[in-house]
Amino acid sequence: MRKKVFVTRKIPEEGIQILSEHFDVEIFPKKRPISKEEILVGAKGCDGLLPLLTDTIDAEIMDETGVKAIANMAVGYDNIDIKAATERKLPVCNTPGVLTDATADLTFALILSVSRRIVEADKYLREGKFVGWDPMLCLGGDFKEKTLGIIGFGRIGNAVARRALGFGINILYHSRVRYKNEEKELGVKYASLDELLERSDYVSIHTPHTSDTHHLIGENELKKMKPTSYLINTSRGKIIDEDKLVSALKDGEIAGAGLDVYYNEPAVHPGLIELPNVILLPHIGSASLGTRTKMATMAASNLKDALLGKIPKNIVNPEIYQ
Ligand code: GLV
């Protein structure tokens, strides 16, 4: 009998094709994130589960549905209780690498847009306010010889640094480990978190969300940033204490922020919505057609391998196979 898999939302067809060759595939049909109850019903009796970052996969879902493998269509996997999965010897997979460039591109789009006030300027023009070139209109931040501070220097942080080099900006990074080769190759400099926050004109977050990075940027950290600096987050919302960010933006402790992710997604802090010096995107870091197709095929291949008894390439809890 063919095994059954449950996909929690419509994903690019290429991913579904990989699954359909081997398994019976059920896809949640609605155009909105699935609820926990709907996962419990939809995945009940399925062998494999392909969730998205919007789906919280906890021990109850693992036990009630009886799934044997979980392949997240995301590089981040803070939506899955990895400890519970590991205790149950359930393989969990993610999609690293394929969304690095798209996310780094979007990070740069945010850095440029927030500092050069692109959204504000567009709105100004559409409102009919553009009456001629103005030497004082929409003055924003500079890049050349300024400093970009990158927090988390994995694949995406590294790709952001490579893009930044073209702008002639100095680069600091803070990470759990030193990247000596990159320090030589790219000229990036390691800094403590405090030093990075104090010296950077742009601070961009590229660390995963874990218990160590939860609220990594809170009141004290925001106070260390320059009043002319910008904070960019394309990683996970819970890395920033959002209430404190709203206060810092309101009080002029920092100049602006560019955000793609939020503390309680899809809810956005009402204080952020009111602020003109913030650009708010609906979590579209990896949203290019090519990237989403690769994420879908990677997640599907991971699930296929796990269910056919192979160790999947992108396993996040390999210890279950020992
Ligand atoms: C996107 O946020 C991802 O983790 O893939």
Brief descriptors of the model:
322 residues, alpha/beta, Rossmann fold, 7-stranded parallel sheet, 5-stranded parallel sheet, 13 helices, binds glyoxylic acid
Overview of this protein structure:
There is one protein chain. The protein is of the alpha/beta class and 322 residues long. It folds into 2 domains: 4-97 and 289-321, 3-Layer(aba) Sandwich (Rossmann fold); 100-280, NAD(P)-binding Rossmann-like Domain (Rossmann fold, 3-Layer(aba) Sandwich), CATH 3.40.50.720. It contains 13 helices and 12 strands. The strands form 2 sheets. The chain has a 7-stranded parallel β-sheet with strand order 8-7-6-9-10-11-12, with helices on both faces. β1, α1 and β2 form a beta-alpha-beta unit. The chain is globular, with a radius of gyration of 21 Å. The mean pLDDT is 97. Bound molecules: glyoxylic acid. Residues 53, 74-76, 99, 285-286 line the site of glyoxylic acid.
